[in-house]
């Protein structure tokens, strides 16, 4: 019936990671829906054929690609270059499509789940002893990594995974020529991330953009499944299921590091496709936080910055010391 391509990407917008990221090479880019030339720490692309409404994928599937773009360690860590071109260093992922068959005059419902994880193998692990086998810290290693990981020469250090999950629901109404989309992005608060979907005619629709919180050293330890961003919208489609030029958004929020409501910023819920995409692309990916520092210029204290999101309008001195509560997000039930 129709084919869609869902992209999920985690990236660092600066040329290099800050102090909290130990100075590794960044991706040096803005938010983007371009297929090529958009470097990412971990990215995936899932091909969804609506005529195959029950299917599971892993990174060996032709329809599901999970990759990392090259990274490089800073000088004080040996300038190590990693191309992620071996099985031992590539990121991993799984995906699932479930739902019902296409309905000519009704509504087809599809649920899409994607989960990816990858490690910074540019870390000079070949100079470090096998901490897992040598010290018997198997449980600690598994907790830090998020899963039981076989040891190999590229994973001798306790390097945590970058974890990202995406849950998308498509309601395809071919009679009214409308598609309703709900997209929830969860995972580690660091780094930035984006989700978008292509139709089979090359039309592109942004779903989520997330500005990172904290630092790599603080956010990547463990798979915390923070709610990062969520979007709900309805867009026009043609007979082939390709995107039209008109959409209505119900909600679009980046929850971390602040409760940033993009519809409040836009002042409207009705958009052309170009204006909707522009709302996301125009976001500043290196927004400065307290004291004018970028969010990853914090001290690299492992596990110290697993913070819940909070409402920007409630960002007083109290929030420097108190643990945020659900009341800090009065406009969204999560």
Structural commentary:
The protein is mainly β and 334 residues long. It has one domain (5-123, 159-328). The protein is built from 6 helices and 16 strands. The chain has helices at 131-135, 138-145, 216-219, 262-266, 273-281, 318-321, and strands spanning 3-11, 42-49, 55-58, 64-67, 71-72, 81-82, 92-99, 107-118, 162-173, 178-187, 192-198, 204-210, 226-237, 243-254, 260-261, 270-272. The strands form 3 sheets. Strands 3, 7, 8, 9, 10, 13, 14, 15 and 16 form a 9-stranded antiparallel β-sheet that branches. It has a 5-stranded antiparallel β-sheet with strand order 4-2-1-11-12. The radius of gyration is 20 Å and the shape is globular.
Spatial separation of the terminal alpha carbons: 34 Å
Uncertain residue segments:
126-137, 145-157, 297-334
- Helical segment count: 6
Report the portion of residues in β strands: 25-35%
Coarse structural class? mainly beta
Number of domains: 1
Per DSSP E runs of 2 or more residues, the count of β-strands stands at 16
> What is the overall silhouette?
globular
Helix content: 10-25%
Radius of gyration computed on alpha carbons: 20 Å
Mean pLDDT across all residues, rounded? 77
**Which H/E pattern describes the elements?**
EEEEEEEEHHEEEEHEEEHEHH
Largest sheet: 9 strands, antiparallel
């Amino acid at each position: 019936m129709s084919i869609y391509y869902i992209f999920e990407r985690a990236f660092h917008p600066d040329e290099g990671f800050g102090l909290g990221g130990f100075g590794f090479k960044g991706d040096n880019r803005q938010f983007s829906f371009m297929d090529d030339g958009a470097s990412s720490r971990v990215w995936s692309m899932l091909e969804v054929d609506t005529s195959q409404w029950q299917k599971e994928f892993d990174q060996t599937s032709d329809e599901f690609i999970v990759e990392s773009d090259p990274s490089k360690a800073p000088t004080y860590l040996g300038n190590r270059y990693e191309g992620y071109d071996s099985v031992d260093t590539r990121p991993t992922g799984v995906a699932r499509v479930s739902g019902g068959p296409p309905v000519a005059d009704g509504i087809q419902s599809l649920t899409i789940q994607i989960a990816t994880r990858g490690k910074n193998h540019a870390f000079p692990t070949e100079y470090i002893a096998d901490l897992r086998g040598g010290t018997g810290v198997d449980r600690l290693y598994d907790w830090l990594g998020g899963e039981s990981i076989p040891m190999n020469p590229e994973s001798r250090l306790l390097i945590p995974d970058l974890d990202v999950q995406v849950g998308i629901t498509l309601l395809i109404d071919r009679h009214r020529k409308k598609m309703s989309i709900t997209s929830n992005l969860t995972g580690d608060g660091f780094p930035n991330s984006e989700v978008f979907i292509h139709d089979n005619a090359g039309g592109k629709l942004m779903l989520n953009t997330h500005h990172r919180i904290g630092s790599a050293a603080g956010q990547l330890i463990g798979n915390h499944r923070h709610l990062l961003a969520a979007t709900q919208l309805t867009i026009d489609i043609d007979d082939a299921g390709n995107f039209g030029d008109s959409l209505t958004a119900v909600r679009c929020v980046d929850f971390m590091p602040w409760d940033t409501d993009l519809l409040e910023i836009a002042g409207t819920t009705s958009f052309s496709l170009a204006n909707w995409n522009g709302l996301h692309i125009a976001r500043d990916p290196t927004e400065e936080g307290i004291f004018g520092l970028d969010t990853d210029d914090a001290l690299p204290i492992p596990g110290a910055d697993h913070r819940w999101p909070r409402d920007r309008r409630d960002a007083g001195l109290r929030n420097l010391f108190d643990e945020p509560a659900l009341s800090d997000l009065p406009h969204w039930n999560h």
